[in-house]
Design goal:
The complex is a heterodimer of chains A (65) and B (257). Chain A has 65 residues and is mainly beta. Chain A contains 1 helix and 5 strands; from the N terminus they run E-E-H-E-E-E. Chain A starts with a strand and ends with a strand. Helices cover 41% and strands 16% of the residues of chain B. Chain B has a 5-stranded parallel β-sheet with strand order 5-4-3-10-9. A 3-stranded parallel β-sheet of chain B has the order 6-7-8. The chains are: A mainly beta (65), B alpha/beta (257). At the A-B interface, strand 3 and strand 5 of A face strand 4, helix 2 and helix 3 of B.
Chain lengths: 65, 257
């Protein structure tokens, strides 16, 4: 299934968000996620099922003013 | 001590963490500023680079309180969602709420700001809204539940100082008990000293320190300025006057009469 991760198309075999993050190399990272503009808390990632074309945002701490 | 929601803060200088030449310089600047609060943000993370993880480790080692922002958000929903994401990542209900309305000046969209503040305050966030000196907007933000305001000095990164002195002074006078932190636009330590002398409670500096030729020295200079400004405010400055008054007593002056 193809999903849009941080603006780039990526292929994943996993249907749930937690698995897709693991597969895409985010395992163990401190990140926060949103799917199609809706915040998905870490505790809900395992239960969040992705669909073809979903827009996934994976954000992490960054410098800010 | 300055009361910011449930937290008492000793330092009146807050520091942004962006645009430093290196992480090491950032860390040294935070120490030189004696800052207790630094602002941070959220950005897209690359699984390969994991830049965010390294940055977060650095900030945690500094032992400072973080104030996450919603920088770059132009819509209420974006800002609210970013706040939710920041709360989870940073483990704080503090949020520096930015809803940008105009690209050239990065002026806040104050209508969206009030809407977003109302939503986030109702959800239990402790909101630090980046706003203008507009009194009505300030009223609305306080009515929405904000207990701190962050009026701009001048457009972000401009270094112009306190652009609307009259408006800012009026804001301070209208809300004597609300913590007011000047955020954005200060360029040199004298701007920060002036802000504290006028009764503002703190300043948030980023570009003026990060982009200085020597950010660490500039951070130390800002720390001194803020201390001087606060001390002057507490000491009770004299009122400016138009005519001279001799500082040396006239009684007993030689050759008179």
């Amino acid at each position: 299934m193809k999903i849009l991760v941080n603006g780039a198309w990526r292929e994943t075999q996993r249907e749930e968000l937690a698995g897709a993050l693991e597969e895409l190399g985010y395992g163990g990272s401190v990140v926060s996620t949103a799917v199609n503009g809706e915040f998905i808390a870490a505790a809900l990632r395992a239960r969040t099922v992705l669909a073809e074309g979903d827009r996934v945002e994976v954000l992490a701490p960054m410098q800010g003013g | 001590m300055l009361q910011l929601y449930q937290m008492k803060v000793g330092s009146r200088l807050m520091l942004g963490t962006a645009r430093y030449p290196s992480p090491a310089v950032l860390a040294d600047a935070v120490r030189a500023a004696r800052a207790e609060v630094v602002t941070v943000s959220l950005r897209r993370e690359s699984a390969g680079e994991r830049a965010g993880q390294a940055f977060w480790s650095l900030v945690r080692e500094l032992g400072v309180r973080v104030l996450p922002n919603t920088a770059g958000c132009h819509a209420v929903k974006e800002a609210v969602t970013t706040a939710h994401m920041a709360r989870e990542v940073f483990g704080t209900t503090w949020i520096k709420l930015e809803v940008i309305g105009e690209e050239d000046t990065l002026q806040p969209d104050v209508f969206g700001l009030v809407d977003a503040a109302r939503i986030l305050c109702a959800e239990g966030f402790e909101v630090f809204p980046y706003t203008t000196e507009d009194l009505v907007v300030a009223e609305r933000l306080l009515a929405a539940g904000c207990k701190v305001l962050m009026p701009w000095g001048a457009p972000i990164g401009s270094g112009r100082g306190l652009n609307n002195l009259f408006g800012l002074t009026a804001l301070r006078a209208h809300f004597p008990d609300v913590p007011l932190i000047i955020d954005a636009g200060l360029g040199v330590p004298s701007h920060a000293a002036r802000a504290l002398e006028l009764g503002f409670d703190a300043v948030l500096i980023n570009t003026a320190v990060a982009q200085a030729r020597d950010p660490v020295q500039m951070a130390a200079a800002f720390a001194l300025a803020v201390e001087a400004g606060l001390g002057a405010r507490q000491a009770g400055p004299i009122e400016p006057r138009d005519l001279a008054t001799p500082s040396t007593p006239l009684i007993g002056t030689a050759f008179r009469g």
